[in-house]
Amino acid sequence: MDITSENQELNDYYLPTAGDYFSLLKPRVMSLVIFTAFIGLLVAPGEIHPIIGFTAILCIAVAAGASGCLNMWYEADLDAKMKRTAGRPIPSGKIDPESALHFGVGLSVASVLTMGLLVNAVAAVLLTVTILFYVVVYTMWLKRRTAQNIVIGGASGAFPPMVAWAAVTGDVSLASVTLFAIIFMWTPPHFWALSLYACKDYANAGIPMLPVVSGEKATKNHIMLYTLAMVPVTLLPWYFGFAGLIYGATAALLGGMFIWLSYALLTDKKSVDEDSASAKKVFFFSIFYLFALFAVLGIENLIGRVL
Predict the structure, then answer these.
(1) Residues 130 and 156 sit within 8 Å (Cβ to Cβ)
(2) CATH number of the 1-170 domain
């Protein structure tokens, strides 16, 4: 977790800003977490007071930010070696590691306690599991040790809609597990596409991402296989009856597009070093894909309630 002496000197006279601390929360990642959690809250059966619902989403957002902060604290040495992350607050010397650790732990505890006291115990327990899975299982245990880090560690990003569902119902159901499964299956092809065109960065940092360990071809094969396995899972909300025909048709159409882009990446004869366009298309489409699936699920649910 050591930062360079040059950055330490900067930290000696630089006063961190609110923006520096906010960037520790990984706001771009947090935004997708908040959105999927909100949809989980929206489609869960039953009623929840708007203030309690807002509190639940706020707790999930704070917990996600705290997890990102603790991830940056633990991986500051790796971030300093990667162009993509070298400008983050800790490796750049804007915030010292100890302050980041205290900030992350404080937010984690506050989010769980608030969820338990103001929402319900089941949601608080799931939120605790979410934080521990991301920080301990993924960040501390898996990421530096195995190319399967994203496959197993991806569960941490899949919990938020399940937590939100529990905030409304006080339990875990097949439907909430299905929402978890969609994000869990989506995570590997999403991050493997990123790791393809950021492979050199990961290699320089010594992170055993799949392209670093197994090569480009194997990674493309894995993206194709996981995409084929993911698309049927996205149809489960329609199959189990808590989503309608509009969602089912959207999931099928977007799933077909995802499969096509993954196939185009698989059959692209150019290496990613020569041309990363195919990998970037899969990565950026995957973000739109997950957003669109959950957006349609939420909109369809709202329409059903009005009608």
Answers:
(1) yes
(2) 1.10.357.140
- CA dist 195 and 152 (Å) reads 16
Q: Is the pTM higher than 0.90?
A: yes
Give 149-161 pLDDT, tens digit per residue.
Answer: 999 888 999 999 9
Where do we find the tokens 């899972």? 233
pLDDT tens-digit readout, 8-22: 555 556 788 889 999
